[in-house]
Amino acid sequence: MAFRDIRTIGDPVLRTLCEEITNIDDRVRALVADLVETVDAEGRAGLAANQIGVSLRAFSWNLDGEVGYVLNPRLVEVSEETQDGDEGCLSVPGLWFPARRAAYAKVEGIDLDGAPVTVEGEGIKARCLQHEVDHLDGKLYLDRLDRDVRKSAMRKVRELM
């Protein structure tokens, strides 16, 4: 296990569509251990594999004392009801912007034994699930901001780079 450095905006790996995991081997087991260890720090809610430089479909979460992971996650259900709130990202450090997400989300995938996993939740957990699946699809939360907010956000991002 290793606590891994977080890739930040501008790194091309964050815009890469992550590949499905087809073989659960020692490399994938080490990746999960690194994801879990790296997300298990104060102020961290979720972490996608590409945020630590690995273009495989896996993420971990750390919410309300629960730390977990899922491989090959697919967002299979979201509510029509939405939630508004400030959203941030380890790959866009120090910046938070208002973002609208579904109030409920459900992700399906597998664990390290290949067994089916379902992760679902409302509120911050729903936001986290959507945010991390977006990462694995090569998207940042900035892409989902309303136009005026996004324009301001990108200006602030450029100032930090």
UniProtKB/TrEMBL annotation:
A single GO BP term for this record reads:
translation
Keyword Methyltransferase among UniProt keywords: no
The superkingdom listed in its UniProt entry is Bacteria
> Cofactor note from UniProt?
Binds 1 Fe(2+) ion.
Q: What is its EC number?
A: 3.5.1.88
- Which keywords label this protein? Hydrolase, Iron, Metal-binding, Protein biosynthesis
Under the heading InterPro entries, the entry gives: Peptide_deformylase, Peptide_deformylase_sf
What does the record give as the active site?
132
Q: CDD domains of this UniProt entry?
A: Pep_deformylase
The record's catalysed reaction(s) read: N-terminal N-formyl-L-methionyl-[peptide] + H2O = N-terminal L-methionyl-[peptide] + formate
NCBIfam families found in the cross-reference section:
pept_deformyl, PRK00150.1-3
> Known PANTHER family for this protein?
PEPTIDE DEFORMYLASE (PTHR10458), PEPTIDE DEFORMYLASE, MITOCHONDRIAL (PTHR10458:SF2)
The UniProt family comment states: Belongs to the polypeptide deformylase family.
Its biological purpose:
Removes the formyl group from the N-terminal Met of newly synthesized proteins. Requires at least a dipeptide for an efficient rate of reaction. N-terminal L-methionine is a prerequisite for activity but the enzyme has broad specificity at other positions.
- Recorded protein name is Peptide deformylase
In which organism is this protein found? Occultella aeris
